[in-house]
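We treat protein structure as text, and this decision shapes the records that our systems exchange. This encoding replaces a full spatial description with a residue-level series of whole-number codes. Below, we set out a record of this kind in full and without editing:
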Amino acid sequence: MVSVPGIGTVMAGQRIGWIQAAISVTGFILSSWWGTTFAVAWIRTREFPVDGGPHLRTGFVGVILFVVAWLWAFVSGLAILRAAHGSKPPARPTP
């Protein structure tokens, strides 16, 4: 669940993963919006927008949201793995 942070948390049965997924999708949409407007500005002016093009701040916010959601989901995944590792039954001795 590297592509959409939070989906692994949802699959592990925790509802907080839906919030993680929503934040990551929002970040992806915002950064994609900036990328699209950047490309359109480049095509229209036929010059590379050295100032970052229109909606540069929107793109930064989008990237930040996606990274925050990814890190949050990563930490959630580690917590889920640790909890699962601690709840394993003891190993059976071999005869």
